# Entry
Amino acid sequence: MTDRPNGQASDYARPVPADLGVDTIVATAPAALSAPLSPDSRRVARLCLNPRSVAEIAATLDIPLTDTWKLVDDLDAAGHVMCTIRQEIDDEALHRILRHIKHL
# Structure
């Protein structure tokens, strides 16, 4: 996490985006990988070439959940990812999310 001196991301003092949940599904837009991204944003973009939940991103990349939300929010605002907020969670997705949260 080289873009976060002393473990803190620049601009990460702002609040967590209210519309992103742990179950929000994130998918990378095709052009994102050729965009100039921070190292953490690039890791998220690469991982989300296959859609993932915010919880899965945080657990897989070992990034704190609050930082993951903000990275995803930044990527979404720049048009680099597409976020889908689930209305209902099926049992399989819930179990997968819970497994990943336990690893945090």
